[in-house]
Amino acid sequence: MKATQSLQAPSAADAGNRPVAVVTGATRGLGEVIVRTLHREGYRVLATGSRLEKVQELADDLDPSGSTVAAVAVDVRRKGDFEAALAAAVERWGGAHVLVNNAGRSQVQPVMDISPEEFSAIVSTNLDGVFFGCQVFGRYFAAQGYGRIVNIGSLAGQNGGTATGAHYAAAKGGVGTLTKVFARDLAAGGVTVNAVSPGPLDLPVVYETVAADKLEGIKANIPVGRLGSAEFIASTVALLASPDAASVNGACWDINGGLFMR
């Protein structure tokens, strides 16, 4: 696939011409929204998550035939799982063109109370997964001469995490650095690597885990006075994943309502 190609959502009869995107952490929340958005934009999507039954439900909802959406279980802490996901995409659709490293895990915890095991567990999911994904898919994309990698960072990685644990904030800070490292090393192979760093998002999981009074306080501290849109984040991911985004590389696009300004 040439980097100058314009992608358009083909009809069902043209499903074989759709580019292929792999999305981690697609079980729920932002990952699910990203899968739905990319599929709507004309991608065949391999949705991955730690719980196969959940991502399979999403795949079945979008395309029961399995021709344009499929699901596989991936533990992002294991490099071999990324290799297996890539192999599944190649076997099913003949290749892959986009990787979205979305999988993450947060935990609110005072920094002095974090145990070594807890620190390692959070960092492994949020940072190791991005490293393994960029390494496995980046090598494949470079060999093919084209690829797009979009990493999901976080405001916490930029401001130290005022509402999350230090382990999560540290890992997300590392995501920004890895994005630059892989962007530099893979650019010559026709591969771009970028990050999107959202602030607090308007997602069901937020309302499930944050008390109503605290949530109102969070909104009050956001200059625009509202939570971010997961749909807009997903549209931004799709923009960075497009062939037309060839000149965007090593960037981190902040979408946080003005909580962090450069």
Tell me what the structure shows.
With 262 residues, this protein is of the alpha/beta class. It has a single domain (12-254), classed as 3-Layer(aba) Sandwich (Rossmann fold). The chain is built from 9 helices and 7 strands. A 7-stranded parallel beta sheet has the order 3-2-1-4-5-6-7, with helices on both faces. Helix 4 (116-144) links the parallel strand 4 (98-101) and strand 5 (147-152). Helix 3 packs parallel to helix 4 and helix 4 packs parallel to helix 6 (166-186). The radius of gyration is 18 Å and the shape is globular.
Distance between the termini: 35 Å
* Dominant shape: globular
Largest sheet: 7 strands, parallel
The CATH superfamily appears as NAD(P)-binding Rossmann-like Domain
Radius of gyration: 18 Å
InterPro entries: NAD(P)-bd_dom_sf, Sc_DH/Rdtase_CS, SDR, SDR_fam
Protein name: SDR family NAD(P)-dependent oxidoreductase
Pfam families: adh_short_C2
Family: Belongs to the short-chain dehydrogenases/reductases (SDR) family.
Short description:
The protein has about 260 residues and is an alpha/beta fold. It is built from 9 helices and 7 strands. The chain has one domain (about 10-255): Rossmann fold (3-Layer(aba) Sandwich), CATH 3.40.50.
From the structure above, extract its key features.
9 helices; single chain; seven-stranded parallel β-sheet; globular; 262 residues
List the helices and strands and how they pair.
Layout: E1 20-23, H1 29-40, E2 44-49, H2 52-62, E3 69-73, H3 79-93, E4 98-101, H4 116-144, E5 147-152, H5 156-159, H6 166-186, E6 191-198, H7 204-209, H8 212-221, H9 230-241, E7 252-255
Parallel strand pairs: 1-2, 1-4, 2-3, 4-5, 5-6, 6-7
Helix pairs in contact: 1-9, 3-4, 4-6
